[in-house]
Every structure is written in structure tokens, then in C-alpha cells.
TrEMBL record:
The keyword ATP-binding does not apply. This is M48 family metallopeptidase. Binds 1 zinc ion per subunit. Pfam families: Peptidase_M48. GO terms for biological process: proteolysis involved in protein catabolic process.
Length: 266
């Protein structure tokens, strides 16, 4: 049982030295520095710009208008980050956010998101990933999981075909038991942060449900929720519906304070 103690000590050491709290109050493991991740985000964003052409200026102004309204209501520290958003020519209905405040939306997603409120749901969700430092947590979780499996393999003397087969099974267990659930948890948390953020900015939070209905209609066959990096449509809808009453109160308050975005759709 010595290897169990080794894994426990290693995991405890990582937890004690790299604890953080997400915007929703969830405990996180964050091993990477913000500077490291921001540099990686910048490199990935540059590569994306090389791989896909940018959409026309009307699309860029539309996305920028929506993003600026959302960024305006962020806490000061996050608001002062160098946020950048670009629209790319691609039929794939996709959007992404990278550490450092780099965001991208494909024209295929703007086809699915039918108005500024639905686009705000997408951009708010992506900003939520950045605010919650999900990239850091994801990398940190993968690193600590690989460390634990490596310690287990060495300490237990798992050599030869039999050992490799068992390590493969343990790796699969880690994938479905740890890594994918973390990703689903991140998506749910980004949904919660995003719907609150869009409401604070004066976008109708009910549009988040409309957006995911549109996304669901676009999608084909999906793997079971436990094998997916995203929550199922029903799980996502349930979370958003539970957030709507509070978000509507925030929305009415924002509108009363004069936050009424008007971003013309191209």
C-alpha cells in the first residue's frame, strides 16, 4: 500500500500549494502562472489567425460592440485586461476563449445566434471561462493526474504487457472519472457566469436558452453525457433555467441604470 501513500502525499502537496477559488466559490487546483498561460493563449490566437481568414468589418464591429458591453461590467481587474475578439470565416458553429483575453467567433455561430442577446450569451460564456481560469485548472488537473498515474506505475512495479494493460485501464478511468467531468463542470460554470454577466450588461438572459435550443437543433448524434466534454442539452437547459429568475432581476436593474446595448446585426 506504499504507492497509495505516495500518491496521497503528492496530491496533498499540490493541493496545498496551488489552491484557488473560482467566481462561483468552487475550489480549484491552479499550478500554472497567469503569465505562462497568457503567453500560450497569445501563441494559439496567432495560430488561429493564420489558419482561418477573418470576416468582414461589419462582423468585427458587431462582435466588438457586444464584447465591449460585457467587458464594461466586469470587475476592474478583469476589465482592464487587454481583451481582443475577432470573427473568423468558418461554417463551423464554434467560439473560443484563451488565457490573456483572446476570443474568437466563427461566422457559422453567428448564423445560429440570431440576435445580439444570443451572441452575448456566447461571448459571456467564453469570458466566463477566462474569469474562472479554466485553462489553468484544466492543465493543472491533467498534470497532477499524470503524476499520480506515473507514481502508481513506478511504485507498484507495473512492468510488461500486463502492467501496461492495467495502466491503460487506469488511464481510461482517469479520463472518464476526472478529466471529462472537470470539463463538464467548467462548461456549467461558464454558463452560470455568462448568463449573469449578460444580464448585468443589459442583454436579455432568456436568450441564452434560445441560443442553446438553436445549437441543439444544429447538432447531430452526441455521445452519452458521461463520455462528453460538455453537459447534455437537458443538463445545460436545467442549469440555465435555474439561473434565469435571478438573472432577470439583474437584467431589469441594468436596463434601469441605462445599460441598453444596441449592436446592429450585419
Amino acid at each position: 500500500m506504499r504507492w497509495i501513500r505516495l500518491i496521497t502525499v503528492a496530491t496533498l502537496a499540490l493541493t496545498l500549494t496551488a489552491c484557488a477559488t473560482s467566481p462561483t466559490g468552487r475550489q480549484q487546483l491552479t499550478l500554472m502562472s497567469d503569465a505562462q498561460l497568457n503567453e500560450m493563449g497569445q501563441e494559439a490566437f496567432s495560430q488561429y489567425q493564420q489558419d482561418l481568414p477573418q470576416a468582414g468589418q461589419a462582423y468585427q464591429r458587431y462582435a466588438q460592440c457586444i464584447a465591449e458591453a460585457l467587458i464594461e461590467v466586469l470587475p476592474e481587474r478583469e476589465r482592464d485586461q487587454d481583451w481582443q475578439i475577432l470573427v473568423f470565416e468558418s461554417e463551423q458553429a464554434n467560439a473560443f476563449a484563451l488565457p490573456g483575453g483572446y476570443m474568437g467567433i466563427n461566422t457559422g455561430l453567428l448564423r445560429v445566434a440570431q440576435n445580439q442577446d444570443q451572441v452575448a450569451a456566447v461571448v459571456g460564456h467564453e469570458i466566463g471561462h477566462v474569469l474562472a481560469r479554466h485553462a489553468n485548472e484544466r492543465v493543472s488537473t491533467q498534470t497532477s493526474t499524470q503524476l499520480a498515474l506515473s507514481v502508481l506505475g513506478s511504485a507498484a512495479g507495473m512492468q510488461g504487457p500486463g502492467g501496461e494493460q492495467l495502466m491503460g485501464a487506469l488511464g481510461l478511468g482517469a479520463q472518464y472519472g476526472i478529466l471529462l467531468p472537470f470539463s463538464r463542470r467548467h462548461e456549467t460554470e461558464a454558463d452560470i457566469i455568462g448568463v449573469r454577466l449578460m444580464a448585468d450588461a443589459g442583454f436579455d438572459p432568456r436568450a441564452s436558452l434560445e441560443l442553446w435550443e438553436n445549437m441543439s437543433a444544429e447538432g447531430g448524434a452526441r455521445p452519452p453525457a458521461w463520455m462528453s466534454t460538455h453537459p447534455s442539452h437537458g443538463q445545460r437547459t436545467q442549469v440555465l433555467e435555474s439561473e434565469i429568475p435571478g438573472a432577470l432581476a439583474r437584467y431589469e436593474e441594468a436596463r434601469g441604470a441605462g445599460r441598453q446595448p444596441n449592436c446592429p446585426r450585419p
